[in-house]
Amino acid sequence: MSKQVEDKEQMQHLIFEAHDIIQRALQCDASHFAVHKWCSVLLDARAACEGVTERINQLKAIELNPKDATTLHMLGVWCFSITDMPWYQRQIARTFFATPPTSTYEEALQFFSKAEEVDPQFYSQNLLMLGKTYLRINDIENARHYLYLASTYPTHTDDDIKEKPLPVHPTEIRTLISPSSAVELNTTSALANYATEFTQLTMNGLSLRELCCLFCCPPWPSRIAAKLAFLPPDPTYNFQADETGSKFSLTLTERAEWQYSEREKENIEGFFTRTSRGNRVACLFVRCSTSARFTILFSHGNAVDLGQMSSFYLGLGSRINCNIFSYDYSGYGVSTGKPSEKNLYADIDAAWHALRTRYGISPENIILYGQSIGTVPTVDLASRYEVGAVILHSPLMSGMRVAFPNTKRTWLFDAFPSIDKVPKVTSPVLVIHGTEDEVIDFSHGLAIYERCPRAVEPLWVDGAGHNDVELYSQYLERLKQFVSVELLN
Known about the structure:
One of its GO terms (molecular function) is palmitoyl-(protein) hydrolase activity. The protein is an alpha/beta fold and 489 residues long.
């Protein structure tokens, strides 16, 4: 019934009411597998409403009835989500759990496969998750098979009708880069969202017709950029205006993983600034230290917004004694407009001028920090202004070089050509990259480092991927050394 209700509050009310009923049923008969199964289903639904994850009932349901495909599927989803958890959620998990929950893609695959064995093609979402899990472990043939089955799955229920995608073969997926973050998948958006991982593994096998469709319809860098890099999440925050209407406090939505104390809120100030392209961009100033010499102008990754990043900003700034100033790209969070390469450059320009005029911070006291796609506007700005320093975290040489690793030159229609702008950066540059980066290959960081005129000792994090560099101890150690010692000397 909750799925038939449009109003979110009413839907949540029905879910919570059903959860209370199933809890009473659990007290009446704790040995019935169906009770544990539906308790697990409702815990999943409740988790979507309030961010709580509990899976004990799934294990109990499987113990009582090992041939229940639905419960096997849900446990597979739990294993996958734990394994696929982005860095900022891992940080939160470490805060709340002495031993954070762990799992593997192989474990998730066991549950999805068992569910399929028990009841073949019982659920389109199980086919979908099988395809995604095989992608994660680089099993391309099985990924093709299950993604195709998911895309051609017949409609049996109202949910299937709502979620059914067009029958598109996996080899026709044509999106390229999907850097950091958590993107929830449903059947409707599955092929589009899988495009990132799938194309990274199969792009070199695309036909000439498919390449033309990707890059030549029409052959404009801005269109390529849109296909390459932007995955704005649903906003996780709002701005609440003060009496003057010029200052805003950050209010996180219920779906945000982190909520602030009143004391922390006092150190966060939000406001809007207007870009040269007419968009209204949300900005955030996080005052982490009263004695900070430097303020970091932070350009975040492609699938997060200020709400998701703000807790990280508080932690980072307090640990390296810097204040943090950040902004949301056009089309992200509560910023207006649509994300594009041109808007990316206009957005950081507007943030730069707002930081200097509103807070009176001089260029020599500003550190530009770009992460993943955020390195693109960071390099562009740094090539035009001399600043205190630049930090490039998992940088990319250009869009084409990410999609086609053997690309040796910058083509006219290439997007994000940072490799050609880096030689113009006159400020000290610290490059950070994981050696096992699965999204932007480690070779990109090396090439950027080699082209920087004033590159300092880089940080190559052995074994780190694209989304977990921050979890390694050397990350903070190197930043502290750079900011507190090298820049001051």
